[in-house]
Amino acid sequence: MSDFAVKLQVAQALADSMSAGSLDGFLRWWVIDSAPPSRFSEVCRPFQIDRMQRISGAIEQVAGMREYSGPRAFWNICARGYDKSGSIARMVAWAVSYSRFPMEIVVAAGDQDQASILYDAAKRECDLNPWIKPRIRFKTKKIEGPRSGSVVKILTADAPSSYGLRPDLIICDELTWWEKRDLWDAIFTARQKRPKCVMVVISNAGMLRTWQHDLYMGAKGDPSWVVWETDPLTNPTWMNREAIEQDAKLLPKSVAKRLYYNQWIDPSEEAGYLLRSEIMACLRQGLEPHTKQQEGCTYALSIDYGPRKDRTCLSVLHQDRDALFYIDECKVIQGTYDNPVRIAEVENWIEDKLEVYPQAGLIVDPYQLEGTIQRFGDRCSVTRYQARGPVGNYHMAELLRTSILGQRLLWAPGTGAHPNKAEDDFAEELCNLIIKQLPSGKYRFDHESGMHDDRAVSVGMALLALHEGYIPRSHLVPTPLKIPSRELSNSIFSGFSPMPLFGITKPDKRRK
Question: What are the residues whose beta carbons fall under 8 Å from the beta carbon of 19, sequence distance 6 or more?
Answer without folding.
Answer: 25, 26, 29, 30, 94, 97, 98, 132
